[in-house]
Amino acid sequence: MTRLRVQNALHLEDLLSGSRSAKVREVLGEEAFRRTIAIERKRTERTNEPFLLMLLECVDHRRPGKFTHALDNPMTAFLSATRDTDVIGWYRQHEAIGLLFTGLAPDCKNTSLDTILNRVSTVLRDDPSFEQFNEISISLHFFPDEWNQDDSGSPSNPVLYPDLHQVEKGKRARQNLKRAIDVLGSVLLLILCLPLFVVIAAAVKLTSRGPVLFKQQRVGQYGHYFTFLKFRSMRDRNDHSAHQQYVTQLIAGNAERIAQNKNGEGVYKLANDPRITRLGSVLRKTSLDELPQLLNVLRGEMSLVGPRPPLSYELAAYQTWHRRRVLQVKPGMTGLWQVTGRSRVSFDEMVRLDLQYANFWSLWLDLKILMRTPAAVIKGAY
Fold first, then answer.
1. Long-range contact list for 5-9, CB < 8 A, 24+ apart?
2. Degrees (nearest 5) of the Cα angle 223, 225, 229?
3. Of 2, 10, 121, 272, which one is least surrounded by beta carbons within 10 A?
4. Domain range summary for the chain, segments of one domain joined by +
């Protein structure tokens, strides 16, 4: 993000080309403009053509009316100084104007920045009410943006994601019901599986050194980290470099299938992982090592149904479009990938299944996935 304060003495070379004849252009309202930003993110994911979001904000947020009045005259100038493919609208109604410069050339960030800054400075300089702009701040936000890998794991520039926390009223009610089902289901399963918890915990403790539970930082919805729980299936204090190398190849599409199933079907898995104990191999095949995640569900960090939560080094290797799987829905214990493809599909295909689930999510879909999960677990075990 680049930020500057517009001063009266601002003078940059005028790179604006072409006429600035009046055009009939629409200034979008806040809801429509924020929805357009979300659409442009998806377009960039497909085309790799970045876009730039420019925000003009009132420095004194206690006087939004002054900001609106200050933009009355130059609004027309901004519309005429931008391309027909660029979009202008309210990022925050009467407080922040946004301009979307779309379809920029990849790898030309600095050139695009200089050109757009000069365009805007020309508009402001030529406007007769330029002295009113002392209290207006301009900020520039490029997409794709960098993500925080060491802190929260979330997008480093939330300005580019204004739609993430906006939930439609009807969908909010269904999400509340989904959360109620998660709480009720996790409590009932914890009670029913309590004897199994005791048996597995004792077996883990007796067969290998180390704690019963394996705790790991995973990336949840919106990129926030949480402590992920499993029954320990590996030897204590392992080197994870081999796994990191494998998943990096898998995400890049360079991993090879291995014939591991009895039917000869190829799967994407790290073969002969020396970190896994003999008991751990059984726990993994039967998915019994996943049972402690019911506590993650109860705490609201996961859902019964959703995409699997990635590790931080997996997220670091993601392509831009892969990130949507950790933005749109909460991670889950089981999901569409587990009951349809599991390790038999490539990473890209897994992400597409996760996005399909997010786009067409319903309580009925959750129920169907939950009903198909036991059969998928048995199939994976044998």
1. 5/59, 5/137, 5/138, 6/124, 6/133, 6/134, 6/136, 6/137, 6/138, 7/134, 8/130, 8/131, 8/134
2. 130
3. 272
4. 2-160, 169-381
CA 147 to CA 142: how far, in whole Å? 12
* Rounded Cα–Cα distance for residues 291 and 191 (Å): 12
Report how far residue 285's alpha carbon sits from residue 278's, in angstroms, rounded to the nearest whole number. 11
Residue bearing the bigger pLDDT, 263 or 303: 303
**Contact criterion met (CB below 8 Å) for 44 and 143:** yes
Contact 60, 150 (CB under 8 A): no
Nearest Cα residue to 197 out of 293, 332, 281: 293
Q: What Å distances lie between residue 69 and 3, 129, 218, 227, CA to CA?
A: 22, 10, 47, 49
Question: What secondary structure does DSSP assign to 49-100, as a single string?
Answer: --EEEEEEEES-TT-HHHHHHHTTTHHHHHHHHS-TTSEEEEEETTTEEEEE
Q: If one looks up domain 2-160 in CATH, what number appears?
A: 3.30.70
Angle 370-299-291 from CA coordinates, rounded to 5°? 45
Q: What pLDDT sits at residue 13?
A: 31
Instruction: Tell me the whole-structure pTM to 2 decimals.
Output: 0.80
List the 87-92 sheet strands across, edge first. Answer: 2-5, 136-143, 51-58, 96-101, 87-92, 27-28
With CA atoms as reference, report the closest residue to 326 among 310, 305, 343, 312: 310
- pLDDT bucket at 39, cuts 50 / 70 / 90: very high
CB 382 within 8 A of CB 262: yes
- The C-alpha atoms of residue 144 and residue 156 are separated, in whole angstroms, by 11
Beta-carbon contacts of residue 77 (< 8 Å; ≥ 6 apart): 20, 123, 126, 127
- pLDDT of 74 reads 53
Residue 87 in contact with residue 100, Cβ under 8 Å? Answer: yes
Beta strands 27-28 and 136-143 are unpaired
pLDDT tens string 338-378: 888 776 788 899 999 999 999 999 999 999 999 999 988 87
Q: What digits encode the pLDDT tens for the residues 198-225?
A: 999 999 999 989 999 999 999 999 888 9
Distant-in-sequence, close-in-space partners of 235: CB < 8 Å, separation ≥ 6 = 208, 209, 210, 275, 276, 277
Preceding peptide of 307 cis, ω within 30°: no
